[in-house]
Structure prediction request, 359 residues.
Amino acid sequence: MSSNSINRKFKFEKPIPVDEFIENALYEPNKGYYNIKIPFGKKGDFVTAPTISNLFSEIIAVWVISTWEKLGKPKKFNFVELGPGDGSLAKVLVETFKKFPNFNKAINIFLYEKSNFLIKIQKQKLKNYRVKWTKNFNQIKTGPIIFFGNEFFDAIPVKQFLYKDKSFMEKFYSISPNSKVKESYKKSDKRDTEKIKSFKTLKGLKFFEFPKMGLAEMDNIIKKIKNLSGGILLIDYGYIKSIKGSTLQAVKSNKKMDMKDLFKNIGKADITSLVNFTLLKEYYLKNNLKVKNIVSQKFFLEKMGIIERAKILEKKMTTKQKEYMYITLMRLLRRELMGELFKVIFAFKSEKNDFLGFK
Ligand SMILES: C[S@@+](CC[C@H](N)C(=O)[O-])C[C@H]1O[C@@H](n2cnc3c(N)ncnc32)[C@H](O)[C@@H]1O
Prediction:
């Protein structure tokens, strides 16, 4: 792998683990992808469900309200959006919540965002909206809590390992001064090896990804849920049965790029990996949360009534608006588009179990 056009602002002369390499490419201040441009939308590099259709965000709003009802309509209720992107979902949530006065009195909305650049964009979009930004969940002290993330976990870099000669070997990248990208492997750190061995999901795999950074984020979230009760709803591009090989992908201008080209575009393309939902479920169960059966985005949205909602909205629409609404709805629901590729998981601490949207 080599390229003369590698962005020289990024220096990785010493080999660094894959997750740290990606972390720098995405978040290094003033250089990282998420700190220099708005990546979402038709003019950006990729579209996400909330930037495709407001119907998606409305359904999430209805799910949050229904969960509050299931939990006995507590007087104080917290909602944290993880990785709110350009703030599209939060905007629709606030507007929808206003239509439910009792719920609206109870709800506190927090946004948890890593990119300072995106926080600025969110603050512009949500001026005069009742939302707060948080970097530390300790500021939330009472009331059940619901965390929600759409394409949050897949944006957190993963480590990659090879199991060879009875040892776990971790993959590293480096970029030489003449812009050559080199891949190398080193024996895995002892603590990582112990952690990996504790997962049934990873047993017997020759090559696999491990979301160490993502699970560290999860630790804080799980602690909060255990403390206050509530849960975490995640929607992500991912898989249930294990996948052979790397799932890293780079996306630029709404097109997937060959990973080789990624190295010519460090800081200019988004890099994600597919979420291992079975591993995530195993982690929640290990931490004594309950978990609903993982379902597809199509199943969840349809069960929550997205088609019925579209039928109500279409009555007040022009033919052109109607056409547009159904095209975007099909993007969310068609199996070969987002419908099956995206999965939904809900882990929770509560005596209740009959949350909407699942099997
Ligand atoms: C792929 S975008 C999805 C944005 C939005 N949820 C949507 O669906 O349009 C990922 C988002 O997660 C944020 N993010 C990634 N890692 C994060 C972390 N560790 N803590 C907080 N935010 C993070 C990114 O900056 C970005 O806002």
